[in-house]
Please model this.
Amino acid sequence: MKAATLSEIKAELKTLPPAQLMDICLHLAKFRKDNKELLTYLLFEAQDEAAYVKGTKDFISEQFDEINRSNIYYAKKTIRKILRTTAKFIKYSGSRQTETELLIFFCKKLKHSGINISSSTALMNLYERQIHKIEKALATMHEDLQFDYREELENLKM
Model:
């Protein structure tokens, strides 16, 4: 089955009555957890981005508290899982400012987690990739915001 283009989907959605449109959204929510999370963001959290970022930071903090520090292998697996979750939340928002805030928060938590990331090449590369992503997101932001985040970014660099 070939997927329709976004313009075709948009044109079809315009022709549907509101009740049928609601049924389609509910069906999407039942189909996958990611769809349900995205709909939750769009319906309840998109209006207050600051609260969304705060809630996401709290969730990330909880996950960092649960890291198994006894073995670097298990720590790496958990850190990758936290990063995947963070990336998913960033994707829901689509805002460069949210992306920057969450990635800076992730890097701070990783740096202060008590895990020696410099002893693991994979963790060091992961950390440096996140720094690069922050720099890339900063380049597209307003100059005032760039200045605010640059200071935090400089503190993260090793």
